[in-house]
Amino acid sequence: MPKWLKWILGILATLALLLFLAFLFISESLPKGQTGPEAEALANKVLKAINKPAWDNTGIVQWSFPGGHDYIWDKKRHLTEVKWGNNRALIDLQKVTGKAWTDGKEVTGAAGEKLVKEAWGYWCNDSFWLNAPAKVFDGGTERSVVTQKDGSKALMITYKGGGVTPGDSYLWSLDENGLPTGYKMWTSIIPIGGVSATWDDWQTLPTGAKIATSHELSMVGMKIPITNIKAAADLTSFGMTEDIFKPIL
């Protein structure tokens, strides 16, 4: 066996061992929550804290997510524009269909569909980081209360369906007003259970809705800023003189 191959295999074996040890000693088991009226009341307290009615009346939102993902989301019509790299896609979020362009030229057929599905995957992840607390009553969710070691009540949200990773669970820590301060997560894409992320730098949008614009993953200290934020009740208030979603209407 060549020395370079032994070297690569050695690195892979070391990484696998480190991952196993991390899972063994760091990973937390998913806590058991209690469903029922208390959980529903706690979830409604979260919605009050973030002004969910104002979020529902926010017609259009723009934001940027790390990795070069830029969005304009027409919430009223369930449409979104996604830009990443030299690609752009317009998506009907209810049908998960749309059109895609690369370097300004439309990509059709299977290649175009692939770009649309890729953009939809980005949107599912990045819109969750934009305002996950607003999704506590989404279809397919289950709410439960978990009593933490300090005696405080945390809200567990389990996504039993929808999105790209059904089955994921998030345990929200809340302040005295119900405003989320962070969560621990048990997801299919992270093999270690209980990794936490903060929900910081809360801002009030012009529509009155509140969103957290800064997050930090505890395991790696990675910061996830939400930037380039703009929101309005409708396209006119947003300042959009031409409907960018015409190609998919």
Question: Quick gist of this model?
Answer:
The protein is of the alpha+beta class and 249 residues long.
Care to describe what's here?
This protein has 249 residues and is an alpha+beta fold. The protein has five helices and 15 strands. It has a seven-stranded antiparallel β-sheet with strand order 6-5-4-3-2-1-15. Strands 7-8-9-10-11 form a five-stranded antiparallel β-sheet, covered by helices on one side. The longest helix has 23 residues, at 3-25. It is globular, with a radius of gyration of 20 Å.
Compute the average pLDDT: 89
Distance between the termini: 59 Å
Q: Would you count the extended β strands for me?
A: 15
Poorly predicted runs of 5 or more residues:
1-6
- Count of alpha/pi helices: 5
* Cα Rg: 20 Å
Helical content stands at 25-40%
**Structural class designation:** alpha+beta
Provide the succession of SSEs: HHHEEEEEEHEEEEEEEEEH
Reported for the largest beta sheet, the result is: 7 strands, antiparallel
β-sheet strand percentage? 25-35%
